[in-house]
Description:
Blueprint: E1 4-9, E2 13-20, E3 23-30, H1 36-51, E4 60-65, H2 67-74, E5 80-85, H3 91-94, E6 119-122, E7 125-126, E8 132-134, H4 138-151, E9 155-159, H5 168-180, E10 185-188, H6 189-192, H7 198-228, E11 235-238, E12 244-246, H8 247-252, H9 260-276, E13 280-286, E14 291-297, E15 300-301, E16 303-304, E17 307-309, E18 321-323, E19 327-328, E20 330-333, E21 339-343, E22 349-355, H10 374-380, H11 398-413, H12 417-442, E23 451-455, H13 459-470, E24 474-477, H14 484-491, E25 495-505, H15 511-530, E26 539-548, E27 555-559, H16 561-565, H17 569-584, E28 593-603, E29 619-620, E30 625-631, E31 636-644, E32 652-655, E33 658-661, E34 666-669, E35 673-677, E36 683-687
Parallel strand pairs: 1-4, 4-11, 5-6, 5-9, 9-10, 13-23, 23-24, 29-32, 31-33
Antiparallel strand pairs: 1-2, 2-3, 7-8, 11-12, 13-14, 14-15, 14-20, 16-19, 17-18, 21-22, 24-36, 25-28, 26-27, 26-28, 30-31, 32-35, 33-34, 35-36
Helix pairs in contact: 1-7, 2-7, 4-5, 9-14, 10-11, 10-12, 11-12, 12-13
Amino acid sequence: xxxxxxVDIGGTFTDVVLESPKGxxxxxxxxxxxxxxxxxxxxMNRVCERAGVPASAIEQIIxxxxxxxxxxxxxxxxxxxxxxxxxxxxxxxxxxxxxxEQYDLDLVLPDPLLPRQQRLTVSERIDANGxxxxxxxxxxxxxxxxxxxxxxxxxxxxxxLHSYLNDQHERLIGEVFAQRLPNVAxxxxxxxxxxxxxxxxxxxxxxxxxxxxxxxxxxxxxAGRLREQGTDCPIFLMHSGGGxxxxxxxxxxxxxxxxxxxxxxxxxxxxxxGRHGLDKVLSFDMGGxxxxxxxxxxxxPKTARVFEVARTYRFKKGSGxxxxxxxxxxxEIGAGGGSLAHVDALNQxxxxxxxxxxEPGPACYGRGGERPAVTDGDLLQGKLDPDNFAGGxxxxxxxxxxxxxxxxxxxxxDLDAVEAAYGLTEVVDENMSNAARVHxxxxxxxxxxxxxxxxxxxxxxxxxxxxxxxxxxxxLVPTGAGVGSAIGFLKAPFSFEATRSVFVxxxxxxxxxxxxxxxxxxxxxxxxxxxxxxNAPIEAEYKVYMRYRGQGWEIxxxxxxxxxxxxxxxxxxxxxxxxxxxxxxxxxxxLEIEATVWAVNATTPTPKAERVPATxxxxxxxxxxxxxxxxxxxxxxVEAPVIERDTFTLGQRISGPAIITExxxxxxxxxxxxxxxxxxxxxxxxxxx
Length: 689
């Protein structure tokens, strides 16, 4: 068995998991913002010491991070210019000209990532068929190089009209910049996202360019620091689609890392779902800075090719920045243990998205934080043990939490500290529940049929309350829940999805063109995977996005290898009509069918999760003590038994209210639920009776 390290850098904690012949060993350390690699080195050395394994024995490191996401949300990337076709300078500011909140007269659209003065144009034009209408003058590009050099730009994004069909003009710009400005980072949309729809494509290449210098510098420093520690092994990165890519590819296409940490969590939840034979799962990942919610059906996370970063308006589609890359489809909100609370002008408690992070952290960390965070609210309600937080490595100051909550919430609303703390956590729980409801409605799902799988340092504290609000009857908290995303990295396959826009009308269906397109995409995706693993078998997953003529968006249709190699119009039409009927109840008679985007995902095989038998609880667990905790459903404090997870064994049960403790998190069992242990160590929370 290989010795492998999984590392997840979050906004507050860096989670480190070591997989060795001795099993899994994990640890959490505070994230170091100025130099994130420092937290990785600290965590690696501590987890190796705990496992009794030298750092030099590590054979593979798999890393996921929210650094790319945070850089986009906080607008702290490189000074970036966008080069586009003359007349299309304002595409990313005009957006799609739709209002995501139709009746809000005070609606404020999010600012584009790059302001107008950083968007430059060239005189060229390629038409919708890929033919050159206006050739690109090399001298014009050279003059543009001088302009960009004089302005001190660190990175350049190139997004020209219809370059997904004909990339020769973008390639020419790339060639000139490589010769004239080799130190300026360059991103071409024909490489980053060769897909139709200029708004999404331009945003994607701009985002890639914006974070490229930051991520490239960080990944270089990380590799250097690891070599200094004697850990000279391959480093791989988790990408947004739920697979692993090489360090070199990650540095070139960092936009694919935007959801890398959360993607690891979804892979982890899918693995747990497979072990328990669950076909409908709501993945709930709550860390120190954000909460992530994902729908998993048939042990497979839902995926998409466009998602939005930093939605600004009540989680609504259209209020964020669209990124056109393969991604596990989830909703992410600013609700974590470090999310800060305040009272607004209407005397309502508001929580997030601003976070205390790890520097200074919540008030209870004693690192200079003066404003109340969700962790402070949990502490005052008795959900956390101040002496055993993060395995006792971070002592919590209950008095500081009380002072912060009283000053910022209690005194303004005439509430005592515990009441104010309850108000704080109830607001954040409702925020997360509402996000889950919106996500379910957008996907046409009824959450009462789902099982929740909760992980992340803060999720087990809040999961049962979310289940009460959402009408979910069962919740599983896996072993290693506090570092779930990092464990997910170790279970993810090497994979890469290649996409291309090739417009096909079914009245002019050309099997040879379709077959050659899919073959080329398979070769492209396989090449990326081979850069990570030269010998493993590779499976190809084929997909085409189809619609009726006149519709604005497509639905994904999965193809077999045989269907991809020998495309048949009747087969494609039957597949489309079947999936369209499943989604919308019927087909549309008399309309022509179109295909717009083709995709091939090359992946190494994923070991099938071993099923565990369901185990009935037959004996009551023996608690080690009691603690006073506030039960939200009852609206009062209760005396709850406390049991350590290590002593809570197979076949035992405990009735809520109860508290189950472990080093990396705490599981709150409310009065409405009981808890038992399953064969794989999962804590099973179910409605009583």
